[in-house]
Structure formats: structure tokens, C-alpha cells
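Justification of resources, computational component.

The compute hours requested in this renewal are based largely on the per-chain cost of generating structure records like the one below. Each record pairs the submitted sequence with a full C-alpha cell output. That output is archived, and it is also reused by downstream analysis tasks.
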Amino acid sequence: MVSASVQQYVPALSQFSRELTRADMDRIKQDFVHATGMAASAGFDWLELHCAHGYLLSSFISPLTNLRTDDYGGSLENRLRFPLEVFGAVRAAWPATLPMSVRISAHDWVEGGITPDDAVQIGRAFKAAGADMVDCSSGQVSKLEQPVFGRMFQTPFSDRVRNEAEIATIAVGAISEADHVNSIIAAGRADLCAVARPHLANPAWTMMEAAKIGYFEQAWPKQYLSAKNQLERNLEREKNTLAQTRATNATQLP
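The structure output for this chain reads:
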């Protein structure tokens, strides 16, 4: 295992990583470029470079995991040096006509770690390097983290990066309803929302949410069209029943 610096993620349980040498960094950068070429050949239309959650490039960015004393450690500018090198090489290998985003941990949730203020600076740096979007996640860099969970809890990070670094962003984290997505986009807090775990719990999440908000043009597999029609009828019936109940209650008020 390799990282920005020697470290152990879980004390007494995890392996110790070794610090990358310059030769390691050159080799790994070329591995990223090779993977990019394969993605382009396979026909993918969007590429994201993962610089979050304590993975290799994230380990350079966070002061909790980057303890280097060379040109790749110390200040945020230095800690971004290798991730930006990799990004630049990957961006050059990726078709210029296709979008490329970068995922960052906008908050380490540990004192002395990355803060939302840093996230704005990180967003600006990747924008200058040619990023089209910043995917604003957080945490998972240190087991000492104390995140504050809640509905749409990471959206404020997207909001700040989007409006202060002036780059398109992707909001993620505890976004579980279409109404959440619509409110985030309408308020100008993100340009896209990434919904992950709701799809794991319900592979038909997109179709269900489209029906709930009355968007009936959502495509369904033809084998499921009878279920689509029934769901839409049931939702319409529930909507009418709720409206009638409200109307009845309103007439009974003194």
C-alpha cells in the first residue's frame, strides 16, 4: 500500500502504507492516463477523477494524511501539486469535447483537516486546471472524523464551491427524493445531484420519483408498462383523496 505519507488508517488493524517516491508518482500518473485511454475507447462520455475519501490523491490533499516535507507537502498549494499533475495528464488524454469532473472531500470533519474554506480554494485550483465540475463529498479521510449527518448534509459544500469558486458542482449525500434534487438545483446550490444509496435500496428509484412528481414521460422498460400505469393511477387517486380530505377539513373550521 502506498500513500502521500506513511500512515495506518485503523490503528492496530490496518496495514501501514509507504510514502510514494517520485518514481512511484510518475508510474501511477501514467496508470491514470492509461485508464483514461481505455475509458475513452470504451465509449464513456464523462470522466471523474477521485480525489476524495482518503484515496491516493486525497491523501496528498489533506494535511491529516500528507506529512511530507518536500515540494508535495506543507501548504495547500504544495499538497495539491501531485493531484493537479495527475488531473492535467488525464485531462490531456481525455477527449476535449467530453466533460471531466473531480470529486473532493470538502470537509475532513477533523480539527486540523480540510475545511469548507479550503474546498473553495481546491475548487478554484481544479477549475484553473480545466475541470468542468467539482463533485463535493466529504469525510472518510480519518477514523477520527465527527461528521454532522442530516438530510442533504453535504449540499452546503457544493453551494459554497459553486458560488465562490464559480465552477459547476455536483451535490451528494443524503439526497433521497426528487423534491430534494429539484430544490437544490432551483436554489442554485448545485448544477447536478448524484443519488447513490436510494438506487441501491430501490433500483426503480428514478421511475418511482418521476411518477410521484407527476412526470409521466419517464421511460420504463416495456415489460413494466402495466405497472407504470397502475402506479400513476394509484398516485393520482391518493392525490385526489388528500385534496378532498383537506377541502372537507377546511369547511369544518369555525
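The chain has ten helices and seven strands. The mean pLDDT is 94.
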